[in-house]
Every structure is written in C-alpha cells, then in structure tokens.
Specification:
This protein is of the alpha/beta class. 53% of the residues lie in helices and 12% in strands. It has two domains: 121 residues, Rossmann fold; 76 residues, P-loop containing nucleotide triphosphate hydrolases (Rossmann fold, 3-Layer(aba) Sandwich), CATH 3.40.50. The protein has a five-stranded parallel sheet with strand order 2-3-1-4-5, with helices on both faces. The longest helix is centred in the middle third of the chain and has 23 residues.
C-alpha cells in the first residue's frame, strides 16, 4: 500500500490537513500519538526514563510529565540523544505495525503517516512520498503564539530546533501552501487526495 508522509513545522496546520484526509476515509497514523503510547505507565521505556531522570519526571497519575521532560532535553543535548535512542526504535516498530494492518472495507487505497519530525528521523523510510504543509515563518509564529499561549521567544526556539523550511521544501515530493484559510487548505487536500488514489492504483 502507498504510504504518504505528512509533515510540517509547528503551526503549519498539518493536524487540520490530517483531519481532512481522515474525513476522506484515509487511515492516518499519528506519530505523536504513538510516541505517547510507548511511554505509557507500565512500559519499559517509562521505567527507563524514571531511572534516568528520577521519580519527579512522573505526574501524580504515574504518567510521564512531558512538559518537564521537554524542558530537560531542550537544555541537555546528551539527555536528548539518550531519549531518542530509547524511544525512536520503539516508535518506529509500532508505526510500522500500524501501517502494515490489512486494508479495511471502505478505507482509501493509501495511508498517511503524520509526523512533525518525519524528515528529521528514520520515519521517512516508512513512506514512499512526502507531503509538506508549508507556511511562512511569520504565519508559524502568529498561529502558534495564539494557539498555545507561548511567548515569541519560546516559539522561535521550537522553530529553530526543527529542520529549516527551505530544506523541507527541497525534500518534499508535494507541497500544500497553507498560508490561506481552511477552505483553501481543504481544497488542496481534496485535489491531492485524488492524485494519491491514482498513484496507489499503479503500485
């Protein structure tokens, strides 16, 4: 089955695009959701994280305090590398399992892997084609500040940690410009959906 990698920087609107694809009966696997699943309470990965960073890395519920962990690894390259070496293989295995499930009745003939770090990780190797949701840096900043109530400095730091937009555009097979409104985004998704269905038939 054809696997499309859907990606974009923070505030690009990739989640809105993914929801539109899903409304067209496309199965969408969300890498962020999988990343949360592999560190659920009782998992070996969470036990390793607790041993590495101490019990204070957990919430009272026993779940991982993702905000605290994000701040820790943002300031510590060694810790970031350790965490990636622990979780990325587990995430990759689970994503592959989900992408390999038998096609369901009524499901579109291709699937989507939605991931903000698709181009920065080995997840891209699970896909045959890359679709980038592209916006200007100004749009990213404006949308993310209004959505997440972050400061300009916080958003700029997140953007700086992600792959440069120009580099992403060079690596993408398809680009959806999302500097406009939702209707314009949905129109582009519907158009490219037709193209992907035709491509999938050729496999």
């Amino acid at each position: 089955m054809l696997i499309i990698g859907l990606t974009g920087g923070i505030g690009s609107g990739k989640t809105a695009a993914a929801k539109k694809f899903a409304s067209l009966n496309v199965s969408v696997i969300n890498a962020d959701t999988v990343a949360r699943e592999v560190v659920e309470p009782g998992s070996e990965a969470l036990a390793a994280i607790k041993q590495k960073f101490g019990p204070e890395i957990l919430l009272a519920s026993g779940h991982l305090d993702r905000n605290q962990l994000r701040h820790l690894i943002f300031a510590d390259a060694e810790a970031k590398s350790w965490l990636e070496n622990l979780t990325h293989p587990l995430i990759g295995i689970r994503i592959h399992e989900q992408l390999s499930q038998p096609q369901q009745t009524g499901e579109a003939n291709y699937r989507i892997l939605e991931s903000p770090l698709l181009l920065e990780t080995s997840q891209r190797q699970l896909t045959q084609r890359i679709c980038l949701i592209d916006v200007t840096a100004e749009t990213q900043l404006e949308r993310t500040m209004s959505r997440d109530n972050n400061t300009e400095q916080q958003v700029l730091a997140i953007m700086a940690a992600q792959m440069d937009g120009k580099e992403k555009r060079l690596l993408a097979d398809d680009i959806i410009d999302n500097n406009g409104n939702l209707d314009r985004l949905y129109q582009q998704v519907e158009t490219i959906h037709q193209q992907y269905q035709l491509l999938a038939k050729e496999l």
